[in-house]
């Protein structure tokens, strides 16, 4: 995946912005559920099944389920989309969101 070297070098805020842009596939400034499911599936594919099983309980293991939980926690105005602000707030304040994104910053 390109852009990883930028991810490693930047500050936590830089990294979260980069991650937001990664999830915002169509670049409209919001992450939709469809976009999040797609990226979580891609991340799962990169990490591999074995790591995945060790890191997550069965009940929250599918990308679809994790997306629902993340939106429940992060979508403050309940419009079904995550703005950059909502995403950054949730990522900074909610370790469970970061764990479900499988991202360490
Ligand atoms: Ca989008
Ligand atoms: Ca929202």
UniProtKB/TrEMBL annotation:
Claim: Secreted is one of the keywords in the record: no
GO molecular function, one term: calcium ion binding
Protein name: EF-hand domain-containing protein
Pfam families: EF-hand_7
Record key words, sorted: Calcium, Lipoprotein, Metal-binding, Myristate, Repeat
Domain EF-hand, first and last residues per copy: 11-46, 62-97
Protein family: Belongs to the recoverin family.
UniProt keyword Calcium present: yes
Membrane-traversing stretches: none
Lineage: Eukaryota, Metazoa, Echinodermata, Eleutherozoa, Echinozoa
PANTHER family: CALCIUM BINDING PROTEINS, NEUROCALCIN HOMOLOG
InterPro entries: EF-hand-dom_pair (IPR011992), EF_Hand_1_Ca_BS (IPR018247), EF_hand_dom (IPR002048), Recoverin (IPR028846)
């Amino acid at each position: 995946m390109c852009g990883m070297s930028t991810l490693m070098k930047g500050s936590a805020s830089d990294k979260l912005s980069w991650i937001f842009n990664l999830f915002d596939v169509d670049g409209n400034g919001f992450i939709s559920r469809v976009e999040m499911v797609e990226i979580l599936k891609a991340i799962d594919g990169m990490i591999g099944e074995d790591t995945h099983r060790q890191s997550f309980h069965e009940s929250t293991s599918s990308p679809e389920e994790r997306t629902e939980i993340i939106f429940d926690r992060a979508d403050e105005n309940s419009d079904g989309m995550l703005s950059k602000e909502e995403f950054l707030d949730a990522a900074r304040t909610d370790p469970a969101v970061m764990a479900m994104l499988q991202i360490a910053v």
